[in-house]
Design a protein that fits this description.
The protein is an alpha+beta fold. The protein has four helices and 24 strands. A four-stranded antiparallel sheet has the order 1-24-23-22, with no helix packed on it. A four-stranded antiparallel sheet has the order 2-3-4-5, with no helix packed on it. Helix 2 runs antiparallel to helix 3. The longest helix is centred in the N-terminal third of the chain and has 63 residues.
Amino acid sequence: MTTCKYEEKYDLSNENYDKYENALDDLADRINSLNDRLTTSNIENMISESRQKLDQWRSDCYHLIDRFYEQKCREFDRHVAEIIDRQRKEINRIRSNTATLIHKQDILPKDIDYITTITGQLEQDIDETRDKYLQINIHLLEINENLIEFQTANDTCDASVIPPPYRTINYIDESSKILCANERFLLVHHNSNLCLLDKELNMIREKFWTHGCILDICWSLTLARFLVLTRNYLYLVDESTMSIVRIQKVPKLSWWSCTYSDTCLFLTTKDWGSNICQFTLWPSIQLLKRWQPPQTCKQNETINNIIYNKERIALMIYNRLTKSKLIELKIATTFDCLWSLNLDIAYDCRAARCCLLNSDEWLVIDWNTSNLHHISNDGKLKSTCEYNTSPSCATMLSTNILVISTVDGIHLHKL
């Protein structure tokens, strides 16, 4: 019986031998193909895009250093000019006093002593100008290893599986729910202050805010400043000092949203048939162009939110006739529409906002239904999920931290 079973099995193997052999040949071809894909040329092609990102980062850093250097040179020249102007005014004052004494009939010794004393003081002041006024303290530029991180896992976000927040802070007043992040920090309006927070929501710096309701915030790498938009004005906020400066060249209009590219700033107006004003960033902020309907939107539509990404501009648009909200992606230089997606978001008085995710995808926040809509980079709805508290605004802090502001606080999620 044992022999019979062995022969029966052997017979089946013989019948399927060709099939198994073909399968093995196919596997061998696939393995060889995988090996071919790991050739030097293929590897170079695979990492080419990432290398381009590193090269762009290096170029941006060089430009940032150049602009910072030029700014400090101007500040130093201004500093020296003020010192020389003060000393020249003192010389003119002494010259005037001396001329007065020359024409004076009854010159007293104390007059000569006074002129001699202040002249000596001025001589000493000029001699000591270099040591007293022209000292420059230069700190070494520190490079943080976390400035560049390599992701080994798939870093495409999935908005349908957002984990519970790992950090939360609660609002204690009627704070603006708008927030913005740069490479390291998060800028929020909290407890009547502009607050700079780190990735653990620890307070780094804060400054009392007295300039009205905040409608939008964006970060400009070119200026190395946050830009804070109110109803009529735009302010620059320095993350190092939290100094706040109003930009004088931006006209007083009814503004709604802001974004930036490497070279330009874009502001949207709050009206039907919204305009988009485009400003230069460097060497000064100047109005470059004003885009109007139908390039921006229709006359019966208003733009709630604008975000720039890789020569593209995403717009959140509300149509008052159809009572619909949609997201559109346009070319930043021509405002030609690449795609448009009508969203199932009911009308409400608050603006719908969106957030740029990894892989050039988008997250649309619907505070009315507490839903988050995940949009693909080609304008398709990937998923919709409900957030546990009504969300207002969202942003990415680094590549894997999603920040969401709600009616009651700020939440950090690690994706």
